[in-house]
Amino acid sequence: MTGQREERTTPAVRPYVITRGRSGAASPELPWETLVVAVAADPPAGPSGLQPEHRRILGHCQGLLSVAEIAAHLGQPPSVVQVLLGDLVDWGLITTRPPVPAAERTDVTMLRKVLHGLESRL
Questions:
Q1: Total Cβ atoms within 10 A of residue 17
Q2: Within a domain: 5
Q3: What residue ranges in 11-122 does DSSP mark as E strands?
Q4: How many independent structural domains does the chain possess?
Q5: Domain of life, per the record (predicted)?
Q6: Is position 69 within any domain?
Q7: Model pTM score
Q8: Cβ neighbourhood burial of 84 (10 Å; 0-12, 13-18, 19+)
Q9: What is the CATH number of the domain that holds 44?
Q10: Cα angle at 24 between 22 and 37, to 5 degrees?
């Protein structure tokens, strides 16, 4: 034995352990582009049933972040993060802002016409 540590290639905790075997949340599934923000600046103290992953999510959500961004910060699949976010929504620790529906998004062609109109006046 050389005394060198082997580099781990798989996560120490499997996703099904983090979600306690759940594949979905009790509340409706959050799309990846849903924006999330913590309700309080500090997570609740004491043994409140929060897992370390819940606390990490609350730490990252001091500003608006999407479900996909939170998954990237945690290094977990979005499906796992959706389950954990569902818990936090149910407990009232985060609020969500649904993605803007396609019908309400600004038409890019109209923006280009406005830009070209402004450029022609300069």
A1: 12
A2: no
A3: 35-38, 65-66, 94-97
A4: 1
A5: Bacteria
A6: yes
A7: 0.61
A8: buried
A9: 1.10.10.10
A10: 115
